[in-house]
Amino acid sequence: xxxxxxxxxxxxxxxxxxxxxxxxxxxxxxxxxxxxxxxxxxxxxxxxxxxxxxxxxxxxxxxxxxxxxxxxxxxxxxxxxxxxxxxxxxxxxxxxxxxxxxxxxxxxxxxxxxxxxxxxxxxxxxxxxxxxxxxxxxxxxxxxxxxxxxxxxxxxxxxxxxxxxxxxxxxxxxxxxxxxxxxxxxxxxxxxxxxxxxxxxxxxxxxxxxxxxxxxxxxxxxxxxxxxxxxxxxxxxxxxxxxxxxxxxxxxxxxxxxxxxxxxxxxxxxxxxxxxxxxxxxxxxxxxxxxxxxxxxxxxxxxxxxxxxxxxxxxxxxxxxxxxxxxxxxxxxxxxxxxxxxxxxxxxxxxxxxxxxxxxxxxxxxxxxxxxxxxxxxxx
Length: 380
Ligand SMILES: NC(=O)c1ccc[n+]([C@@H]2O[C@H](COP(=O)([O-])OP(=O)(O)OC[C@H]3O[C@@H](n4cnc5c(N)ncnc54)[C@H](OP(=O)(O)O)[C@@H]3O)[C@@H](O)[C@H]2O)c1
Description:
By secondary structure, the protein is α/β, with parallel strands linked by helices. It is built from 15 helices and eleven strands. Bound molecules: NADP nicotinamide-adenine-dinucleotide phosphate.
């Protein structure tokens, strides 16, 4: 059997490292053909020595020189989308808007895209959509919720007509159950202390504000074409039910597994088949309960801000997502309080005028404006 060539964009990150784990679990089926990072030179050098990819991409100029010197015989470039040329499947685990080029190029090339980089779909949904119909192109979401929805929707004869609503589950993050008042002075460490998932810092902060769930609502709308009125969020602290689809006859189908991102990564690598290595198997003897509750939309206002940006459509999600990156950075650097995140983002959204993007430049302009408005908020 020929091995599938896997390119890992963002190989030094949480998704990237777990992708390597899955590939190594099934060495007869998968081989790493390309690795890409921003500036983590030491990590990518060590990964490349172990995995022997054809290509390594390093965005940062100085780090690229260091990597090229350490890896004689390996092609080392600075253009992220180069990874697509040497792959059958691309896992896009880059954080932030930087991941957009990989998303676009993979679909344009008619290849399978395992998409973890949620920002590219959220910011550039209108540009990504038409590329999904490129012959051979396949977008398989690498996010526990969207992977769950993908699996539930496969059970439908006609998802367009039979789906009543999508229900995204949310762990609730580290501050679930807390009042707005008690969250006035939380620290970065407290916000980074996610109860069920070990992820990169940006998405972990987004989980603490429920912005992550809000961005996932926009992503679900883009992925499955479901209207915002038919996408709901329910808090489920155990993170075992990863999301559900309710059908027109009242039936709900859910996907369950223990929290382990290697399952959605393996699902994307193997699609349309399933891989044979189990990740996140449930031990029904120890799983004692599954709880569900409504999200506290007054304390965690970012959830509804994302719904609002999604309903505005066009460039609004791009601006919100970009502003959120700036604001989250500022919080992580200790330049602002966690409790001010939602207000800053609401002010940005109120000042931003959404248009319909027709090119990457339009999305870049919205991204830049979102960032500039967020900086203005921070310097007030
Ligand atoms: N982690 C999860 O469980 C999870 C779940 C669902 C969705 N996601 C989504 O997946 C994406 C990645 O998340 P993560 O948690 O894995 O983030 P992470 O741990 O912070 O890793 C981010 C990766 O992106 C790379 N990167 C950043 N800028 C780059 C650039 N300009 N060019 C090339 N590579 C660049 C980083 O390289 P350096 O190390 O060199 O900076 C790193 O490898 C995010 O969009 C996140 O929302 C993650």
